[in-house]
């Protein structure tokens, strides 16, 4: 497999199995959920070894450093060699269960609910 010096970020994110499809990776880029070296990028942005890529998928942020650049999807074992995973561990199930959840489609949270959420997440009051 010939190694490249650069590749499209959406293609690389898909190739190393951070998203299930390339179009999902491109959509994440267009939505601002993919950052390279701290900057939100478009799907065609070129990445190179040493770049830090942050991908937000399903509410969790994956932080990886590009080790090898590939453009085609490979097996999981090879994909693991193409990146260095620096993601924080996922939150404990107890913490996720304690967060308040709204019924889907019930509208925007009230001011009181927003204050409670901010208090739980430790955000400063405005």
Give a verbal description of the structure.
The chain is α+β, with helices and mostly antiparallel strands and about 130 residues long. The chain has a domain at about 5-90: RNA-binding S4 domain (Structural Genomics Hypothetical 15.5 Kd Protein In mrcA-pckA Intergenic Region, Chain A, Roll). The chain has helices spanning about 10-15, 20-30, 75-80, 95-100, 110-120, and strands at about 5-10, 35, 40, 45, 50-55, 60-65, 85. The strands form two sheets. The chain has a five-stranded antiparallel β-sheet. A hairpin with a 2-residue loop joins strand 5 (about 50-55) and strand 6. GO terms for molecular function: DNA binding; ribosomal large subunit binding; single-stranded RNA binding.
TL;DR?
GO terms for molecular function: DNA binding; ribosomal large subunit binding; single-stranded RNA binding. With 126 residues, this protein is α+β, with helices and mostly antiparallel strands.
Q: What structural class do helix, strand and pairing data support?
A: alpha+beta
User: Which topology of the domain at 7-90 does CATH recognise?
Assistant: Structural Genomics Hypothetical 15.5 Kd Protein In mrcA-pckA Intergenic Region, Chain A
In what order do the strands lie side by side in the largest sheet?
A: 3-2-5-6-7
Parts with pLDDT < 50 across at least 5 consecutive residues: none
Strand count, sense and barrel status of the largest sheet are: 5 strands, antiparallel
Using the CA coordinates, give the radius of gyration: 18 Å
Please count the helical segments: 5
The ordered H/E elements are EHHEEEEEHEHH
CATH class label of the domain at 7-90? Alpha Beta
In total, the number of strands is 7
Fraction of helical residues: 25-40%
Mean pLDDT: 88
Percent of residues in β-strands: 15-25%
N- to C-terminal distance: 54 Å
Label the CATH architecture of the domain at 7-90.
Answer: Roll
Gross morphology is: elongated
Write the CATH homologous superfamily of the domain at 7-90.
Answer: RNA-binding S4 domain
Pfam families: S4 (PF01479)
Family: Belongs to the HSP15 family.
Region (Disordered): 84-126
Protein name: RNA-binding S4 domain-containing protein
